[in-house]
Amino acid sequence: MHRLSAQNWQSVQAHRDRYFRLYLDVVRRGQVEGVFRADVNPKMVTLAMFGTCNWFYTWYDPGGVWSANEIGVQLAGMHLQALRPVARPVSMPSDPIMQ
Predict the structure, then answer these.
(1) Cβ-contact 28, 43 below 8 angstroms
(2) Segment 72-92 mean pLDDT
(3) What is the rounded distance in angstroms from the CA atom of residue 28 to the CA atom of residue 95?
(4) Residue 81's domain is classified under what CATH number?
(5) How far apart (Å, rounded) are the C-alpha atoms in residues 61 and 79?
(6) How far apart are CA 78 and CA 68, in angstroms?
(7) Which helix (H) or strand (E) holds 71?
(8) Do the beta carbons of residue 95 and residue 47 sit within 8 Å?
């Protein structure tokens, strides 16, 4: 990406930021509505989801053991399971940087 022209890089950044805000808003809304657990930081959850997607290309092998669909199902399941409400939420320290 560092080889993109300044104009193209700005466009990529704008799209990335837009999608990040969309996912962050979904997580926050889900927490407010009680669909997602509220004891995890929504920004950290969103960063983890994007990190998983952004590094996928480094280890995915189209001819490998797992199909793209199998990987997608597994990763989506892991992220959704991590957001599933728990009976006794874990107390998380407050960090204003992550807000």
Answers:
(1) no
(2) 82
(3) 16
(4) 1.10.357.10
(5) 21
(6) 15
(7) helix 68-83
(8) no
As a whole number of angstroms, the distance between CA 44 and CA 93 comes to: 13
Domain tally, the chain: 1
pLDDT at 56: 85
User: Residue 92: which pLDDT band, with cuts at 50, 70 and 90?
Assistant: low
The amino acid occupying position 18 is: R
Q: How far is CA 54 from CA 2, 29, 69, in A?
A: 15, 24, 17
Contact assessment for residue 11 and residue 42, using Cβ atoms and an 8 Å cutoff: no
In a domain, 19, yes or no: yes
- How far apart CA 24 and CA 8 sit, in angstroms, is 24
- The structure tokens listed for 9 are 């890089």
Is residue 43 within 8 Å of 99, Cβ to Cβ?
Answer: yes
Say if residue 46 is exposed, middle or buried (CB neighbours under 10 Å; 0-12, 13-18, 19+). Answer: buried
Q: How far apart are CA 78 and CA 49, in angstroms?
A: 10
